[in-house]
Amino acid sequence: xxxxxxxxxxxxxxxxxxxxxxxxxxxxxxxxxxxxxxxxxxxxxxxxxxxxxxxxxxxxxxxxxxxxxxxxxxxxxxxxxxxxxxxxxxxxxxxxxxxxxxxxxxxxxxxxxxxxxxxxxxxxxxxxxxxxxxxxxxxxxxxxxxxxxxxxxxxxxxxxxxxxxxxxxxxxxxxxxxxxxxxxxxxxxxxxxxxxxxxxxxxxxxxxxxxxxxxxxxxxxxxxxxxxxxxxxxxxxxxxxxxxxxxxxxxxxxxxxxxxxxxxxxxxxxxxxxxxxxxxxxxxxxxxxxxxxxxxxxxxxxxxxxxxxxxxxxxxxxxxxxxxxxxxxxxxxxxxxxxxxxxxxxxxxxxxxxxxxxxxxxxxxxxxxxxxxxxxxxxxxxxxxxxxxxxxxxxxxxxxxxxxxxxxxxxxxxxxxxxxxxxxxxxxxxxxxxxxxxxxxxxxxxxxxxxxxxxxxxxxxxxxxxxxxxxxxxxxxxxxxxxxxxxxxxxxxxxxxxxxxxxxxxxxxxxxxxxxxxxxxxxxxxxxxxxxxxxxxxxxxxxxxxxxxxxxx
Length: 553
Ligand code: GLC
Description:
Helix content: 25-40%
Number of helices: 16
Shape: globular
Structural class: alpha/beta
Number of strands: 18
Bound molecules: alpha-D-glucopyranose
Largest sheet: 8 strands, parallel
Strand order of the largest sheet: 9-8-7-3-2-1-11-10
Radius of gyration: 25 Å
C-alpha cells in the first residue's frame, strides 16, 4: 500500500512538474490606453492632434500607469471614416506627422516601459487605395480578384439585399467593371477578398512593416467581417429600415476568419517581445468569443469582450454573469474588459444619472480595473470626460478639418489638459469643439487628491503592485443582494483582495458567501469610495450609495 502511495505521489509530482507553469505575459494584466490621435494633443497649431502630441504626453501616461497605448488609425486616408478608410498602409498621414515621428514615439514610449499598438484595418481599404483603383479598372487586371466583385442581375439588381453597418446596402455598382463590389461599411470602404492569397500576403507584409518599426501589436478592426458566405444567400431577417446590419451568419464570424488570425499570429510570433493581437471581436455569445483565442491559443491573445461592454445599465447580476462567463468559459484565455471607446457613448454618460456621475464613474472604473485580465481605457475616461450630446453636435458646422458629420464625434472631443485656451489641446482652432465640461482637465485633476484621475491612477498602481490585484485568480462570490456585485482575487499564496460594488443609489447591506474556505481576514482598505480606513470586519457589511470597497488581506 505504502509503495503504491509513493508511486502515485511520484507520478503526480512528475505530472505537476511537466505541466506548463503559468508564465506571466505582459498582456495578461495590461491596461491599454486608447488614443484617438486627432483629439489628443496638437503640436503644430493646425487644430488636429498628431503623433508628436502623443510623444509629448508620454510622461503623463507613465504617471497614470498604463502599460500600452493603442493609437487609432493615423495613416493616409480620405477620411470618409476618419482614418478607418486607409489609402496607404505603410505611411503616416501628413496631418499626423511623419514616419520619423512614429519612430520617435515608439522609442520614447519604450523608454518609459510603454508599448505602442496600432490599429490594423483588415477587412477593407479606402476606395482610393491603389489596390482598389487597380482592381476596379478592368476585369482582367492583376488585382481584379483582390476585392469582392459579383455580377448580380446587372446595374439595377444587386447580388443580395444585405444591409451595411453604416446603412444602405452592402453593394455598389461600378460602371467601369460593370459589376458590384461588396462593402459591409461605407461604399468608400470596399471589402478585401481574404480568399485571395496575394491579399493575405500583402496584408501580412503590412504587419511586418510596423512590427519592424517597433509596434508591439495590433488592434484588429472589425474582425468578424473578413469573410462572407460564398453562396451569398438572401437575408432571411432583413433589418428594419434605418437599422444597420447586425452580426448575421452570412456576413460575420465565418470559420475561415480563424485561418487568417492563425496566419497573422504566426507572423507576430516571429518577432520578439510577445506582440499581441487585440480584437474588435463582437460575438453573439461567449462560446464564439472563446473560439477567437484559437483552439491551440494560436489566434488572438486579446479579443475584446463586447458581451460585457454592451451592458448599458448598472445591473450587478448582469455584470456578474458576464464576468463569471469570461472567467469560466474562455478556456483560460485572458479576458479583455472595456466600457468606452471611439465608437460608443462614454461610460460617464451611459451609466451616469447626472446626480452621482462621479461616484458612478469611480464604480465603473473599479468594475473593469479590478478584474483579472486586460483592460482598455479610452482617453479622457480617467478624468471623467463626457460625451457631447447629439443635439449640440448637430449645431457644429462642417469645416475642411471635419468634412463630414459623424454621430460618434460626441465621444471624440479634444482631450482636456488644462484651464488654458482650448483646454491646452491646441493653440489653433480645434477640428472639433471641446465638450461643455472642459473645465474638468488633467491639471486640475492632478491637484485634487480625491479626483477621478487619482482614483484611476490608484487602481492602476494596485494592478502593478498588489499581488492579488495584479494576477490573482478571480473568485466568484455571492453578495446576497441584487444591487451588489462582489468578487475576490486570490493568489496561490492565499493573498486576497475583496471587491464589493454597490450598483444602486441607496446604501446596501451585503452578506458575502461562496468563499472557498474561511472568509479571509481583511486587514486593510486598498481603495474605497467614499474613502474609509475600515475594511469589512466580517462577511456582512454595508456599502454607501454607488460605494466601492476594495480590501486586502
Ligand atoms: C470599427 C471601428 C470604427 C470604424 C469601423 C470601420 O468598428 O472601430 O470606428 O468606423 O470599424 O472600419
